Amino acid sequence: MNTKILIKQSDITKEEVDAIVNAANSSLLGGGGVDGAIHYAAGPQLLEECKLLGGCQIGEAKITKGHNLPAKFVIHTVGPVYGQEQGREEKLLAACYWNSLLLAKKKGIKTIAFPCISTGVFRFPKDQAAKIALETVKKFINDYPDEFNEIIFVTYEELDFGLHNKEINKL
To answer: What is the pTM of this model?
Structure first.
């Protein structure tokens, strides 16, 4: 496995990577948390480009330019709201990571940064989300070993940083 997996506690909008992933809502028109921070840092052009995408379904991913961000691209994915998907929450959260990586692979992206998806207002349990994120990324790397140079999990909170480090040590 040539892909380096890193975990950082930082601000994802400052990451100098090919793409950052946005934990978006289904409208793709901005919101709170990481979604609001990415829209704010990218500038109003991101909203204008997102208006052309027609929204996004849970578990799917769509891509835009990074505009004023250091990242060239933003991959928008919509995570599940915990407790509202008839028991499909884990599968849908895994699909967010998998489909984001597939889209990045198709675009030739080599470095990508993920936030914690669905763990804020969507209430996904943080420990469970970290496990799903890392297991899904590991499986993707095993299936496509030479696609990425670096996959970074950028956590904002110290709790998430610790949970991701705990899970990476199990891989």
So the answer is: 0.97
